[in-house]
Design goal:
Structural class: alpha/beta
Bound molecules: iron/sulfur cluster, zinc ion
Largest sheet: 6 strands, mixed
CATH topology: Rossmann fold
Distance between the termini: 63 Å
CATH class: Alpha Beta
Mean pLDDT: 94
Helix content: 40-55%
Number of domains: 1
Order of helices and strands: EEHEHEHEHHEHHEEHHHEEH
CATH architecture: 3-Layer(aba) Sandwich
Radius of gyration: 20 Å
Strand content: 5-15%
C-alpha cells in the first residue's frame, strides 16, 4: 500500500476517504481536516482567545496540538473530577502535555470545591454522568466568560457527534436536533462553543496522536459502563465498515439540511433563560443546577 500523496509506503489506510498515507502526509491530511472545519463553520480567527477543555484523552490533546501547530492563541482548562486513579492519571497526562508543548494550563479541582464526583454520587439520585456533564459544562463556560476567552473548544470527534445525532434522532428530540452542531454561537450568557475535530473519527485522532508523538492515556472512568452512546457508536462503526464514508456524509447532511429545519422549531419552543440568582449562570429556573447541587452537598 502506497501513500496517495507521495507514493512512499503508507502506514494509515482511510477507506472512508478512499485513501492511504505515509506518516508525514497523514499529518497534512489531519491538519487539513481541522482547517476545513474551522473555515467552513467560521469557528474562530487568530485574534480569538481560545480555551480548550483538556481532559487528558487523545481527542483534547490532539486538538490542542493541532491548534498550536496552526498558530492559534490557545490555553487549556482541565477539570479534576476527583474520580480516584482515573482522575489522577488524566491530570498527570494533561500537565505533562502542557509542560512539553508550553500550553498555558488552568486546573479546577472539584474535590476542593466539595463537588468531587464520588461524593456527589453518594448524595444524588440523578444519573451520575448527567450531573458530571452538567458540572463540566458549567465550569468550562463560566471560566471562559470570566477570564476573557472568546471561544470554548472541545475535542468532540465525528464518532461522538454522529452517536449523539443518532441518539437524538431515535428519541426525535427536536430541541436537541435544533441545537446540535460543531458551533454554537455566544448567546444568553454562554461562550461560543466549537468542535474543530468534528470531521475526524476516533481512529483518525488516535493516529494523529501516535504520529505526532503525543502521549495520551486511557484510564476509563469507573462510572462509564453502559453508556448508551457506546452502543450507538458501535452500530455506526459497523455501518461505516460496510459503507465507508457514511458517518461523515450523515453528519454533513444533517448540518446542511436537518439542523436548519429543527432550529426553526426550536425558536418557537425555547424556554426563557435568565441569570441564576446565586451565581449568574444562565438557567431556565431561578437557581441553576450547580448552585442547587452545592446546596444539597452542604445540607
Ligand atoms: Fe463523568 Fe465518568 Fe460519567 Fe464521564 S463517565 S461523565 S467522567 S462520571
Ligand atoms: Zn448558579
Amino acid at each position: 500500500m502506497k501513500c496517495k500523496r507521495c507514493k512512499a509506503p503508507a502506514v494509515v489506510a482511510l477507506p472512508s476517504h478512499h485513501t492511504a498515507f505515509c506518516p508525514e502526509c497523514y499529518l497534512i491530511f489531519a491538519r487539513r481536516q481541522v482547517e476545513k472545519a474551522i473555515k467552513e463553520q467560521a469557528m474562530f480567527t487568530r485574534e480569538d482567545r481560545i480555551l480548550i477543555a483538556i481532559s487528558g484523552g487523545k481527542d483534547s490533546l490532539a486538538l490542542t496540538w493541532q491548534l498550536l501547530q496552526l498558530g492559534y492563541n490557545v490555553s487549556g482548562l482541565h477539570i479534576d473530577l476527583g474520580i480516584g486513579e482515573s482522575s489522577v492519571k488524566a491530570r498527570e497526562i494533561t500537565e505533562k502535555f502542557c509542560t512539553t508543548f508550553s500550553v498555558d494550563l488552568h486546573v479546577l479541582d472539584m474535590t476542593a470545591q466539595g463537588l468531587g464526583i464520588p461524593e456527589v454520587k453518594k448524595r444524588t439520585k440523578r444519573p451520575i454522568c448527567s450531573v458530571c456533564g452538567q458540572l463540566k459544562r458549567h465550569h468550562f463556560n463560566k471560566f471562559a466568560l470570566e477570564n476573557g476567552f472568546t471561544v470554548l473548544a472541545t475535542g468532540h470527534n465525528l464518532d461522538d457527534e454522529t452517536a449523539r445525532l443518532f441518539s437524538n434522532v431515535f428519541r426525535w428530540d427536536t430541541a436537541y436536533l435544533g441545537d446540535q452542531g460543531p458551533i454554537l454561537p455566544a448567546e444568553k450568557g454562554f461562550a461560543r462553543k466549537v468542535k474543530p475535530l468534528y470531521r475526524m473519527s476516533e481512529f483518525e485522532t488516535a493516529n494523529l496522536c501516535f504520529l505526532a508523538g503525543i502521549e495520551y492515556g486511557y484510564h476509563p472512568c469507573p462510572y462509564s459502563t453502559g453508556a448508551s452512546f457506546t452502543v450507538y457508536k458501535q452500530l455506526l462503526l459497523d455501518l461505516e465498515e460496510k459503507q465507508p464514508g457514511r458517518k461523515l456524509s450523515y453528519y454533513e447532511g444533517f448540518l446542511k439540511r436537518g439542523r436548519p429545519a429543527f432550529s426553526s422549531l426550536e425558536e418557537e419552543q425555547g424556554d426563557p433563560v435568565l441569570p441564576c440568582e446565586r451565581c449568574g449562570y444562565p438557567t431556565s429556573t431561578t437557581v441553576c443546577g450547580v448552585c442547587r447541587l452545592r446546596e444539597a452537598m452542604s445540607a
